[in-house]
């Protein structure tokens, strides 16, 4: 089968790899018809996190079941399914508490928790930017879709990761009806957080970024766009909230946060959230921060890699929730909102391309080139 294989920093190629197959009776084999490129793939693509060359990416996957192992009861050949990016066993201490993002069984390394398809430090599982995908614990890890699945793939594929992830940001931030919510980052995840805040009844959603195309998408769902290359975003949020600050905020950028002029500063968005959110407000951080070895205390201070303005955060009595999203906790309800026509997360899709065009798609998405907001790869196209 063909797959998008990692060859080294900023290099992927589409190559023949061994076919995915059923390995255990609880596995399901899926023919992938839609697989997204995610901002999380870029951590590996750029070489910021270690990923073995020869492995392949892809954790936002949707397709049709071609085979179910002998121990699988709930899904059958022909079913359309979307696969939560967290691979989870369904019965460990964390899964029982809906914390499938920290499954203890799927992650073979005892010091870690949580597993995913085609991901550094998230277990040995192959990715879905390929023609076939093995889904472990298939009964638990397949979400079945209705009859409109094939026609509405670009909506439903967002259930694998970024729609539930954006929703999780608003859950961690405690967004309630009438709230004024600020979202830092208008990438796919930030736009899904803005959509989720709207679904939860926020009265005002403010989205901060500097890419005009992405800010326009935020406006298309009724959010207020704040361009931080033109205005001070903290002041803009205060102006929009009668000087009080937003009720809550979502961090949807992560440790690659930078100034509009390109200067990187990993703690920039957390500091701006602390300043933008009111006293006692909550912050939901889903942008990825990975442990960094700063080398020395001096370097740590210079990079600000791990520290944020905890003093102000404490003084304001704020709260923060963080980490990967437990996709299964939300994806049935979000699926049903899509099915009912009450949510259309595909508004962010800029490109639908065959697998062969993955290398150029990675390059454009990584550059945040104008108009490249979200790429859906179609292996069977
Ligand atoms: P992306 O890189 O396309 O989007 C990030 C956006 O942030 C860009 O539009 C960029 O211009 C903007 N940005 C950079 N610095 C900024 C700043 N100082 N202020 C405001 N905006 C700024 O990626 P994405 O796909 O939207 O993903 C965003 C983050 O979410 C990544 O770190 C990704 O790994 C993470 N993520 C987390 C989970 C999870 O489960 N927690 C799941 C998926 C993705
Ligand atoms: Zn993703």
Question: Would you list the SSEs in sequence order as H and E?
Answer: EEEHEEHEHEHHEHEHEHEHEHHEHEHE
Small molecules held by this entry = nicotinamide-adenine-dinucleotide, zinc ion
- Our estimate of the beta-strand percent is 15-25%
- The fourth-level CATH homologous superfamily of the largest domain is Medium-chain alcohol dehydrogenases, catalytic domain
The second-level CATH architecture of the largest domain is Alpha-Beta Complex
What characteristic shape results from the CA principal axes? globular
Describe this entry's structure for a reader.
- By secondary structure, this protein is α/β, with parallel strands linked by helices.
- It folds into two domains: 2-161 and 326-378, Alpha-Beta Complex (Quinone Oxidoreductase, Chain A, domain 1); 163-322, NAD(P)-binding Rossmann-like Domain (Rossmann fold, 3-Layer(aba) Sandwich), CATH 3.40.50.720.
- The protein has helices at residues 39-45, 93-96, 138-141, 153-156, 162-172, 188-199, 212-220, 233-240, 268-276, 297-303, 310-315, 331-339, 358-366, and strands spanning 2-8, 11-16, 28-36, 61-68, 80-83, 132-135, 143-144, 180-184, 204-209, 224-227, 246-251, 277-285, 319-322, 351-354, 375-378.
- Strands 3, 4, 5, 6, 7, 14 and 15 form a seven-stranded mixed β-sheet that branches.
- Nicotinamide-adenine-dinucleotide (NAD) is lined by residues 38-40, 43, 161-162, 165, 184-190, 208-211, 214, 228, 252-254, 257-258, 268-269, 286-288, 324-325, 368.
- Zinc ion (ZN) binds at residues 38, 40, 59-60, 85, 161-162.
